[in-house]
Amino acid sequence: MADVTIVGGGTAGLFLARELKTKGISSVVYEEHKELGKPIHDTGILSKNLDEFIDFHKKITLNKVKGARFYSPSGKVVELTRKEDEAYILDRDKLEKELAKGIDVELGKRVENLNFKSKYIIGADGTRSTVAKLAGFPEIETWLLGLQYEIPNEGTHEKDFVELYFGREFSPGFFAWIVPTDKRLRVGLAVNGNAKEFLDKFVKAKLGKVEILETIGGLIPMRWRSQFVKENVALVGDAAGQVKPTTGGGIYIGMASARILASAIAKNDLNFYEAEWYEKIMPELEHGLKIRNFLNMLSDREIDKIFDLLQNEKIRKIILEHGDMDKPSKLVKAVLGNPELLIGYLPFLKYLW
Ligand SMILES: Cc1cc2nc3c(=O)[nH]c(=O)nc-3n(C[C@H](O)[C@H](O)[C@H](O)COP(=O)(O)OP(=O)(O)OC[C@H]3O[C@@H](n4cnc5c(N)ncnc54)[C@H](O)[C@@H]3O)c2cc1C
C-alpha cells in the first residue's frame, strides 16, 4: 500500500508524486482518463520560472516568446518585449507524460469514494474536485469558463509574441488571447457567460473564417478555497483553487503548492502545508486578485486611458524590469516605490478603496 493516494493525474498531482519520490515517500496517482494530458488541459504558456520545477523544458517546448502585445478595447497597442525569451509555449500533454516517468500511475481509474488505506489522501482532481466534495471542503466561489480553439497559423502571426485583447466586447472580466505555437495559433478567452459565443465573435473579428483543429475548455478558479486541509486529506492545484487571478495560469502555482505539500507530508504535518502556503504563496495571489478586481471595475474607456499611460517610457521600463508573470508583487512594489508615476493613475485610485 502506498503512503499517499493522489486523485488526479494533472500537473499538480503528478508533480506532487515526483516530489514525494525524491523524499522516499511512496504514492499512487489515480487518473480517470486512459491517457495522461488528454484531453489537453490548457494553452500551455508558462514563464521561465517553470525551470524551478523541471529540467526537461527543451523536450516539451514548441515555441518561446519574447513578449506580449496588449490590445485595448479601442485597438490601441502596447508592446512589452524583452531581448531574451520570456515564456515557453508547451507541447501540452507532454508535460504530464514527462512528469509521470518513474511514478506509479493508474490510468482509467475514476475515484468515487475515499475508501483508501493510505496515510494521506490528496485531491489533485481539478476545479470540480470529487475529493473536495466527498471530504466536505468549502466551495470554490468564483470561477470563469475558459475556452480555446487551436487553428493553423497561416503566417499571419509572428512567433515571438502572444497577443492579449482587453475589453467587454470579447472577454468581460478577463481577456482574450492569441498564442503562437510552432505551426498553429491557440486562440481563447475566459468569461463568466457563454464562452463559445464570445470566442466565435472574437475569432470572426480578429481572424476571419478559420479551420478549428482542436477545442478545449474548462473552469478556471478565480479564488482559492478557504480551506484545503482536513484531517488526513488535502487539496492541491486547481482542486484547491490555486490559480493566478491575473492570468488564470495554474500550472506554476500548482507545482509550487505541491512542493510545499510534499514537505508537509515528509514532516507528517499537513497543517504545515496550509501555514506555509499562506505565508509563501497567498501574498502573490492576493496581489493578483487586487489587480484582477481593479481591472474588472474599469470601463472600456478607462482601460483605454490606462493604455495611454502605458506609453510612458519610464513605466514601460519598470514593467520590463520588475514584471514577472508569476509574482505580481515585484511590479506592484516597484510602481509604489515611484510615487511620481502614480500621478497619472490618480483618477483610478477610487477603485482601490
Ligand atoms: C482554456 C484554458 C487555458 C489555460 N491556459 C493556461 C496556461 O497557459 N498556463 C497555465 O499555467 N494554466 C493555464 N490554465 C489553467 C491550467 O489548465 C490549470 O491550472 C492546471 O491544469 C491545473 O492542474 P491540476 O493538476 O491542478 O488540475 P487538472 O489539470 O484539472 O487535472 C486534474 C486531473 O484529475 C483528473 N480527475 C478529475 N476527477 C477525477 C476523479 N474523480 N478520479 C480520477 N481522476 C480525476 C482529471 O481527469 C485531470 O486529469 C488554463 C485553463 C484553461 C481552462
TrEMBL record:
Signal sequence annotation: none
Record-level GO BP terms: phospholipid biosynthetic process
Keyword set includes Flavoprotein: yes
Gene Ontology molecular function: FAD binding; oxidoreductase activity
Keyword Acyltransferase: no
Domain Digeranylgeranylglycerophospholipid reductase catalytic: 146-219
Keywords, ordered alphabetically: FAD, Flavoprotein, Lipid biosynthesis, Lipid metabolism, Oxidoreductase, Phospholipid biosynthesis, Phospholipid metabolism
Record InterPro entries: FAD-bd (IPR002938), FAD/NAD-bd_sf (IPR036188), Geranylgeranyl_reductase (IPR050407), GGR_cat (IPR054715)
Domain FAD-binding residue range list: 2-35
Protein name as catalogued: NAD(P)/FAD-dependent oxidoreductase
Organism (species): Candidatus Naiadarchaeum limnaeum
